[in-house]
């Protein structure tokens, strides 16, 4: 007890001794407590905000996980689409292969039938009361092709000619194969007959046997220098070239003494020299017959070109043929020519003459020179000299023809103008061969044209001069001085093709009718080819000067962008549509016109506002009644823009076909600028052949979904133009299958009329342009073309649209399945056909080919040779 009381007493004493806190100490403690409280509250706020951020992050993470899940699903769908697309592509390729096999079988069957036929064809023409029989020569026989034959190849070229950069053997072989179906065997008289009566008659009356023997004697003496090389086991190509050079030198030496007046041709060995092409590259043919003795070689001065090979190949080899064809292309590139002439010399000294005219490439055997082969004596080791061979008729024939070439006038080498014409430069209209009524032309013959060119395209010439088949054209932008002594721009065009309905006639017809967007015709002349072509081929040349037409529509579409606004382009295409519909409408005399060759190169535009449709060379003016118009199977136009019915040889042509071609041009422009250029794109637009184009097109247009998906346009595609092509697709194909459009009558087995013609309404075409323009920005854009189209379709007479319909088939005993009807050029001279007769007769195409009546087999074909 005592101790406990003491300790408690001590504690109380200690507490009593401790001093009480001062006010300063109490204030400090309070601040510390306050600070701690603030820190705790701040930490609580931060924890709360962090929790909020964590929650938001969790939500974002969840959204991201969901996006990844959705993306994975989309990726799976895309992979499945790719897999399905590969399957569709494989299905399409298999279908193409099957179709190709079927076509080959049909062609083989028909070719076997044709092979059994005699070489001379007897053509029968059914008329209303009687039939005329015609006997045709070899060259005419080859022109009597069905739609799958010559008519196809006489149309506008379907693909670009190979332009070899290295001129290797592969490119030459490809070029030869490209024209293999357009090349025919012929005799020399028939081949010269194609050049005109002057050439034919001159050759028939040419006599120079004594002169030929003198030339051969001199040639033999010159060959002493290379006797050993000629006696070699394998004679080289340059030995052939030297030997032929000696022969031509001997001919040239003797020609001055034999021929009066003096010859105008000069032989030039170009083996070590070159001639500049239009694009600046060089070509080295083995030799040329030039109309100028200048050292400066020009294609304009070449009368004939020669290709020589050694013993390693014959005249029919694709390599030498390709070289010759490239020479022909170069000869016609700058200088407008009516024909090209060439020779090939190959194994065993065989010489052939090759004539290139709009109707085809004709190859005629000429003879053989004593160079190699069985006629060459064996040289012993002790004596390498060859004994002098007696001249043969084959050798004399070669020399006679070469001497005959020297006799021909330099002006008759196929030129359409004076020989001195050269691009670029100046040309007086008076120098153009041809005639035309003076009151029809706005320019006088004294007018001089100056050719426009820039540094980059000094030697550029527009047109189809680089194509050897069908109509050839040369076009140049030019200037001239008008009657007010002011310079004006214009467009100048040469044209050469087979006789038919000329471009000038169609152009003047649509102009006089007031059809809009047709360039004014300033000057036009025609060159009558009646005396220059026989054997069923009558040629017609034309020279045309129109007002300036600007540039092609393709120039408004760059890679991934438009050069003009969507509204401007829609307005321009409205102008094209107006032109085609107005031309196809009946006039007071129930006549109308179809263009039949709407393509990217024929749709021009000036200043991004003024459209023009040019090149009416394939056009046709019809003056028959609405229900019965003569027609036939024909492939006229540019294959990649031909309508499906034209590609299928359906026999009828209407404004629907021209509008379908216009639709294809716009699709091509959009696809080239905004779409994927894959293999399918190439199958549609490369124009390898009509069959490939037809099969690819039919698959592409089989449905609207497939039509859009196949183009694979970029996301930044022009929406208004896309709406326009969708609207055009609806009018052309919606509600129809390809079979419906290209159907044939089951009984007669002839193409049925186009079902779209009966429902054609110009007002609906105006509606799709109005809908498309509603999606475009039209600020500060004057829509003059679309306004004019709207006014035109509101008129009642604009709805009376015409078309060319199929004729009824004549009795089956009048025409054989593999024969074709002759053109009007082969008909009875001086006899005017009545309308009734026209209902039963096939008319000549623009290219001059013979049209096959619609009931004949579209696969029938005359025998053709690659030689």
TrEMBL record:
Residues 1-10 have a biased composition (Low complexity). It holds the Pfam family Pkinase_fungal. Signal peptide: none annotated. One of its GO terms (molecular function) is protein kinase activity. Residues 146-159, 820-847, 854-867 have a biased composition (Polar residues). Residues 1-29, 43-78, 138-163, 815-867 are annotated as: Disordered. InterPro entries: Kinase-like_dom_sf (IPR011009), Pkinase_fungal (IPR040976), Prot_kinase_dom (IPR000719). It comes from Coemansia guatemalensis. SUPFAM superfamilies: Protein kinase-like (PK-like). It comes from the Eukaryota. Residues 447-812 form the Protein kinase domain. This is Protein kinase domain-containing protein.
């Amino acid at each position: 007890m005592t101790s406990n009381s003491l300790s408690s007493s001590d504690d109380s004493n200690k507490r009593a001794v401790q001093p009480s806190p001062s006010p300063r100490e109490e204030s400090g403690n309070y601040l510390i407590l306050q600070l701690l409280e603030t820190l705790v509250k701040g930490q609580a706020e931060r924890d709360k905000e962090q929790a909020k951020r964590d929650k938001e992050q969790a939500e974002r993470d969840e959204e991201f996980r969901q996006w990844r899940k959705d993306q994975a699903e989309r990726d799976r769908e895309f992979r499945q689409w790719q897999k399905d697309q590969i399957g569709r592509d494989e299905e399409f390729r298999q279908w193409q292969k099957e179709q190709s096999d079927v076509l080959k079988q049909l062609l083989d069957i028909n070719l076997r039938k044709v092979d059994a036929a005699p070489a001379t064809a007897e053509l029968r023409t059914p008329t209303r009361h009687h039939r005329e029989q015609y006997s045709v020569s070899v060259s005419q026989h080859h022109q009597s092709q069905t739609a799958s034959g010559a008519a196809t190849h006489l149309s506008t070229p379907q693909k670009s000619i190979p332009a070899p950069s290295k001129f290797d053997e592969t490119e030459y072989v490809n070029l030869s194969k490209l024209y293999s179906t357009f090349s025919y065997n012929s005799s020399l008289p028939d081949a010269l007959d194609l050049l005109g009566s002057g050439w034919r008659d001159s050759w028939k009356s040419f006599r120079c046997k004594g002169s030929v023997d003198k030339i051969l004697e001199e040639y033999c003496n010159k060959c002493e220098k290379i006797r050993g090389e000629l006696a070699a086991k394998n004679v080289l190509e340059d030995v052939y070239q030297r030997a032929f050079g000696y022969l031509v030198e001997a001919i040239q030496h003797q020609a001055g003494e034999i021929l009066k007046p003096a010859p105008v041709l000069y032989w030039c060995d170009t083996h070590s020299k070159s001639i500049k092409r239009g694009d600046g590259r060089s070509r080295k043919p083995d030799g040329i017959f030039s109309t100028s003795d200048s050292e400066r070689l020009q294609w304009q001065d070449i009368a004939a070109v020669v290709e020589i090979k050694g013993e390693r190949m014959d005249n029919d080899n694709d390599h030498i043929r390709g070289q010759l064809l490239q020479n022909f292309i170069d000869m016609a590139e700058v200088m407008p020519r009516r024909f090209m002439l060439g020779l090939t010399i190959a194994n065993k000294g065989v010489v052939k003459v090759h004539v290139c005219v709009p109707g085809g490439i004709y190859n005629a055997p000429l003879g053989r020179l004593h160079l190699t082969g069985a006629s060459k004596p064996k040289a012993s080791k002790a004596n390498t000299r060859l004994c002098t061979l007696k001249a043969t008729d084959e050798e004399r024939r070669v020399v006679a023809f070469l001497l005959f070439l020297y006799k021909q006038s330099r002006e008759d080498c196929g030129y359409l103008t004076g020989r001195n014409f050269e691009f670029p430069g100046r040309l007086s209209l008076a120098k153009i061969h041809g005639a035309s009524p003076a009151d029809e032309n706005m320019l006088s013959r004294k007018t001089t044209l100056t050719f426009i060119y820039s540094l980059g395209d000094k030697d550029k010439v527009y047109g189809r001069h680089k194509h050897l088949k069908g109509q050839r054209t040369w076009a140049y932008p030019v200037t001239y001085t008008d009657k007010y002594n002011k310079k004006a721009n214009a467009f100048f065009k040469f044209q050469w093709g087979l006789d038919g309905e000329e471009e000038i006639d169609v152009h003047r017809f649509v102009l006089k009718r007031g059809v809009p967007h047709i360039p004014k015709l300033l000057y036009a002349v025609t060159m009558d080819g009646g005396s220059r072509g026989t054997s069923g081929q009558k040629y017609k040349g034309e020279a045309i000067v129109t007002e300036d037409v600007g540039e092609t529509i393709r120039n408004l579409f760059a890679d991934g962008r438009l050069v003009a606004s969507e509204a401007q382009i829609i307005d321009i295409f409205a102008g094209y549509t107006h032109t085609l519909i107005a031309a196809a409408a009946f006039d007071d005399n129930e006549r109308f016109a179809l263009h039949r060759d709407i393509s990217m190169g024929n749709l021009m535009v000036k200043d991004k506002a003024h459209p023009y449709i040019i090149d009416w060379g394939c056009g046709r003016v019809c003056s028959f009644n609405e229900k019965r118009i003569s027609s036939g199977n024909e492939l006229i136009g540019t294959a990649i823009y031909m309508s499906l019915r034209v590609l299928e040889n359906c026999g009828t042509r209407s404004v629907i076909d021209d509008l379908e071609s216009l639709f294809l041009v716009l699709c091509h422009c959009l696809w080239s600028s905004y779409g994927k250029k894959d293999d399918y794109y190439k199958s549609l637009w490369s124009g390898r052949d009509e069959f490939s184009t037809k099969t690819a097109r039919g698959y592409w247009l089989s449905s609207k979904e497939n039509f859009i998906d196949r183009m694979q346009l970029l996301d930044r595609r022009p929406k208004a133009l896309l709406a326009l092509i969708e609207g055009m697709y609806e009018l052309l194909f919606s509600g129809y299958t390809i079979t419906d459009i290209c159907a044939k009558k089951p009984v007669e087995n002839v193409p049925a009329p186009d079902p779209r013609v009966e429902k054609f309404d110009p007002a609906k075409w105006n509606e799709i342009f109005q809908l498309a323009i509603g999606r475009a920005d039209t600020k500060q854009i004057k829509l003059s073309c679309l306004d004019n189209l709207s006014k035109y379709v509101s008129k009642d007479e604009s709805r009376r649209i015409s078309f060319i319909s199929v004729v009824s088939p004549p009795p089956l005993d009048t025409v054989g399945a593999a024969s074709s009807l002759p053109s009007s050029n082969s008909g009875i001279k001086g006899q005017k056909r009545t309308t009734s007769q026209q209902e039963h007769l096939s008319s000549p195409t623009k290219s001059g080919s013979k049209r096959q009546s619609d009931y004949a087999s579209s696969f029938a074909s005359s025998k053709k040779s690659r030689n």
